[in-house]
Amino acid sequence: MPSDLETFSYPHKAAAYSYRVPTPPRIVVPPPALNSDALPEISLLAFRSTNFLDSVDYNNLITQNALLEWTYERRREAQMVLPYLYLGPMTAAKDVPFLRGQAGHVPDQGGITMVLGVRQRHSFESKLMNGVLRKAQEMGIECRTVDLASNQDLIHSFPETTALINDHLARHFHISGQVGKVLVFCESGNERSAGVVAAYLMEMHTDVDFIKAMQLVQAQRFCANFDDAMKRLLQGYWDILRAKRQVAAVEAASARADTTAAPAGMPTNANRPKRSLQRDEDEDMEGMTDDDVERFGGRSFAPFMDHSL
């Protein structure tokens, strides 16, 4: 049949289509740009004004774990994503030399000061993780866990995991004067824990969206796996963070405008008393005492007129 007759007879075939189940568009994470040393060039700016992060140096962040140096055996180890944040599998959480900072994987002085396990509730792996956490506790390392019924619960746990990491870093800095080191891990170190680290990057840095967060995590830990469900989960959390920042910016701008516009000694909108709905009895308003009577007196508000009278 000629193409014009086929199009006329079957108009639904005039455009390209498929028989697959409708799905949302895939989120493509492009590889980051490389610098002259063939290393991913990703810059970071600290977002929250936290004194325990003021001394952190983000320069040459990815030189420690470049993609060109990646080997298959490194998937069983933990990698540094930030100078104070590590990502790895459950085997790294029971690696005593690594936890003590004696294996060359933890630069500078000191080892891991807290381990954060992300596990699925009521699973065989969660029981194995209990033994790993006991090993870390025997070494004097703080241990925290986040239990999930499914990966979809991660979006509700992201604020909690970020708060756990920052609270520990703040306490450790207050006690020792040094920035601690946190290891985030799950069974493989490639899925749930990678999502937690990516969410932390988005929440703590101004110039990191969900795409850049996944790029940085994969640049440091090449085997990290962000499937379509995890990508959409991080995209949804990024939308929440962006909305919160916009609301906070509008409220801050409004507060500054109220402060600068109000004359000295005058109350601002924040502490200005609300207008009362009732007039004060002693308020002298000449000619306005019976205003409602004057406006509506003598008027008829009947919904219809009886013409039978």
From TrEMBL:
- PANTHER family under this entry? SERINE/THREONINE/TYROSINE-INTERACTING PROTEIN, SERINE_THREONINE_TYROSINE-INTERACTING PROTEIN
Give the domain of life: Eukaryota
Its ancestry begins with:
Eukaryota, Fungi, Dikarya, Ascomycota, Pezizomycotina
Give the record's family classification.
Answer: Belongs to the protein-tyrosine phosphatase family. Non-receptor class subfamily.
Q: Indicate what this protein is called per its UniProt record.
A: Tyrosine specific protein phosphatases domain-containing protein
SMART domains for the chain:
DSPc
Q: Which InterPro entries match?
A: Dual-sp_phosphatase_cat-dom (IPR000340), Prot-tyrosine_phosphatase-like (IPR029021), STYX-Interacting_Phosphatase (IPR052449), Tyr_Pase_dom (IPR000387), TYR_PHOSPHATASE_DUAL_dom (IPR020422)
Region: Disordered; residue ranges are: 256-299
Q: Which GO terms describe its biological process?
A: negative regulation of SCF-dependent proteasomal ubiquitin-dependent catabolic process; regulation of ERK1 and ERK2 cascade
What Gene Ontology molecular function terms does this protein carry? catalytic activity, acting on a protein; F-box domain binding
CDD domains, sorted: DSP (cd14498)
Q: Which GO terms describe its cellular component?
A: cytoplasm; nucleoplasm
